[in-house]
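Reply to dn_fold:

You asked what the input looked like. This is it:
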Amino acid sequence: MKIDSGEPFVGKAGKLMDLAFQMLGIKREEVYIANIVKCRPPMNRNPEIDECTACIDYLRNQVILVNPDVIVLLGSVALKNILGQEYGITASRGKWIEKKNIKYMSTWHPAALLRDETKKVDFIKDLQLVVEEVNNG
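and this is what came back:
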């Protein structure tokens, strides 16, 4: 039985994200990473609505404590749970959305890049926009 370390993005998707950070000059220690749900769903499936609902207040409190100017939403699950079910990742990624004095950038989840390598270019471009915003903001 594999024991989960509790650290987000430690598998193949995490290694890919770390590589993207490295390309952009970002140290993982410089960003705060949080998940929608606080435990890994069985078979690493997307969390169900009730699982997200059970954890969302914990995540909201994390955001209040960190008080970020910018939040990057990785994938559809994050986008829909944070900004609303009416948002779609394909239409929203790469575009700034501002709510309650926080700027949100949604992009592909790193796991999606493992399934479709053509998304890597968009992912890097989206993260470049984030770096520019943080550096100029």
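The mean pLDDT is 91.
Hope that clears it up.
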